[in-house]
Design brief:
By secondary structure, this protein is mainly α. 43% of the residues lie in helices and 3% in strands. The protein has one domain. A two-stranded antiparallel sheet has the order 1-2.
Length: 136
């Protein structure tokens, strides 16, 4: 191990288990304010909490136009709140954030996460139902 200019030992990039293509490397020019969310996503993936909750949701959408799966919407909703973003209005900014795109996964990695209007529809549909949203 050798020391680099920042005073840290060089051990190579850290790789995440949920997406092995991601490398966590200190580079001052490649910054996302929410990169700590990747570690939370790693823990969530190991425990399967968000995926378990997503399996309980009933998808009321018809057709094949949906860009994001319900699990992606749920990831974006949960993790944006975890990062301190208060409401779905922030989704338009976050949809192109490289960390949020990785957190949402699927098509979002290349195309972008859900927009504010898509997130509002998801949260309104899931939270307003009189009957439980569970498909169990």
């Amino acid at each position: 191990m050798t020391a680099n200019a920042a005073g840290e030992a060089e051990t190579g990039p850290l790789r995440l288990h949920f997406d092995r293509t991601i490398k966590l490397v200190f580079q001052g020019s490649s910054i996302s304010s929410d990169s700590g969310l990747l570690l939370h996503r790693e823990l969530d993936d190991a425990l399967g909490l968000t995926d378990m909750a997503a399996e309980m949701l009933f998808d009321p959408r018809t057709g094949r136009n949906g860009q994001h799966q319900l699990g992606g919407f749920l990831h974006q909703s949960v993790f944006s709140r975890l990062a301190g973003w208060e409401d779905v209005n922030d989704a338009d900014r976050l949809r192109f954030d490289p960390v949020m795109r990785q957190i949402v996964g699927g098509k979002a990695v290349k195309r972008g996460a859900a927009s504010a209007s898509a997130m509002a529809r998801f949260e309104t549909e899931m939270l307003r139902q009189d009957e439980p949203v569970c498909s169990c």
